[in-house]
Structures are given as C-alpha cells and as structure tokens.
Design brief:
The chain is mostly beta strands. It is built from two helices and 15 strands. The chain has helices at 70-89, 129-138; strands at 5-12, 20-22, 33-42, 55-59, 93-96, 101-104, 124-125, 146-157, 167-170, 180-187, 196-203, 211-213, 221-229, 240-242, 256-267. The protein is globular and about 50 Å long.
Length: 268
C-alpha cells in the first residue's frame, strides 16, 4: 500500500461566484468540482511537523469501545484528544468539541442515516483565517493573556487498513494563498433544527501543490492536522480531501473515520 499514488484530487473551479456547500443537502451545493490528477506522496515513516507541513501521524490508542456512541466520545475521547494535543504541540490548554464527526465511505450506504457523514469530496479548509480567529477567540480561556492559539483536526480510520477512500493533505508550504476560495459552509442538521453557517475555503487547482497521505491507517493511530494558526511564521492551514485510492484492494473495507476538532492555547 505504500509509495506515491497518482490519483484525482477534487479541486473546485473558480467561477467568480462565491461557492456554498451543505453538510447534508449536497444537491444544493454550488461547488463546481474540477478533478486533476496529482501525485500523492505516502509519508508513512517520514517525519513531518505541524508547524511546517501542517500534519503529523501519531500513535494514539483510545479507550472508546464504540465511536458511534456520542456519550463515549464526549466523556472518553474528548479528554483523550486534550492530552494528545498537549503532548504533540506543547500548548497549555486545549478546548475540544465533544462531538465527533463520523464519516463513511459511500460503499456502506450509511450516509443518509447520519448528520454530516459524507467523505470530504472536494478540497477544502474547514475555516477561513477570519473564521478561525473568531472561533479561537470565542473559546479562549478567560482572564489569561495568550501568546498563541491554533486549531487542529484529529482524524482516525476506525475501520482499519487499508482505506478505499483515504485522506489526502496538502503540504502547507505549497499553499500559495490565491487558490483558497472563500465559501459558505452551511450546516443543515436533521430533524428540523435551524441551519447555521460560517466561512471556510474551497481550493482551486495549483500545479505547485504537494499532496501527502499516510497509508494503511490503523485504529490505534491518528492524523493531526492544522486548520488555523495565530502565528504567521508557522503553517497556517492544510487543505484536505478524500480520494479514491486506485490501488486499494477490491476487498478493502469501506472506510469509517472519526474526526475531532480542538483548539490549543499557549499562555504568555
């Protein structure tokens, strides 16, 4: 499973209009997907950095028995993420969203039964720089002077290896900036709850992009990657997207993954 892949990266065409996309009602999306074949380098066994490339692969065993149980995720996994990010980043405090985001390969036929459960089928960054700064400020510890803050995603393939639909990540050093297109991410919870939205980025093609992946992800490891950062001298964000592995075995299990989102704070 290791080595460089050439696979289609689902970029978004810049039409000149502001794109919008929905967590569930994808028929309302105004995204124009423009796939491009790109080399995707396997980084398993290669040292990376959260502040240079923007992502790392870490060993991380969870005590959660069932990641589909929201109570276990909130009571067990969220504290595990706090300790993981303190260890990996050296930050003083972590604020973690207690809800995990489960995603399923379309082969399972599970997406209609869950909220926001489709693999990320176009290259994107969860939050724009302005949205990230606002979210970091909203959850900042009160009465503490901050030296730095950053947001992270922690991604785990709970279905085990190999993945039919792995996660590709774009080396932050190869992100020029103009290809990050401002877009409205719209969340439409099931059951009639009110919609809400914030600004993120979708990503247009740039031939200078360097795409990465980590082959054969197991449940006792995770990818940590950055989505926003207050220090301009460090990696700011890392675009990411699901891709169909052209060399995945025919019998590969459909991917099931869980994503946790958190913010790290460094005190002055």
């Amino acid at each position: 499973m290791s080595g460089t892949r050439t696979a289609a990266i689902a970029y978004v065409r810049d039409t000149g209009e502001r794109p919008r996309y929905y967590a569930n009602a994808h028929e309302k999306d105004t995204i124009v997907v423009a796939p491009q074949p790109m080399a995707i380098a396997d980084m398993r066994g290669v040292r990376t950095s959260l502040d240079i490339e923007g992502c790392v692969l870490v060993a991380h065993r969870s005590e959660v028995a069932d990641f589909a149980d929201p109570e276990q995720v909130a009571l067990i996994h969220a504290p595990e993420i706090v300790e993981l990010l303190k260890r990996e980043t050296g930050c003083d405090e972590v604020v973690v969203a207690p809800r995990g985001i489960l995603r399923f390969s379309e082969r399972l036929g599970e997406n209609a039964r869950h909220d926001n459960s489709h693999p990320a089928r176009f290259a994107h960054v969860d939050v724009s720089a302005e949205t990230g700064a606002r979210f970091r400020a909203q959850s900042a510890p009160p009465d503490r002077e901050l030296a730095r803050s950053a947001q992270y995603n922690v991604w785990r393939a709970i279905s085990g290896a190999p993945q039919d639909v792995p996660l590709a990540l774009c080396d932050a050093r190869s992100v020029a900036g103009p290809e990050l297109l401002r877009a409205d991410a719209i969340f439409d919870p099931p059951g009639g709850a009110p919609e809400f939205s914030f600004e993120g980025y979708v990503v247009a093609h740039d031939p200078g992009h360097r795409w990465l992946w980590f082959s054969g992800m197991e449940p006792d490891e995770a990818i940590v990657f950055k989505t926003s950062e207050s220090d301009p001298q460090r990696a700011q964000c890392i675009p990411h997207v699901a891709f169909d592995d052209p060399e995945a075995p025919a019998g590969a299990p459909p991917r099931v993954s869980i994503e946790m989102r958190a913010t790290g704070y460094w005190f002055a």
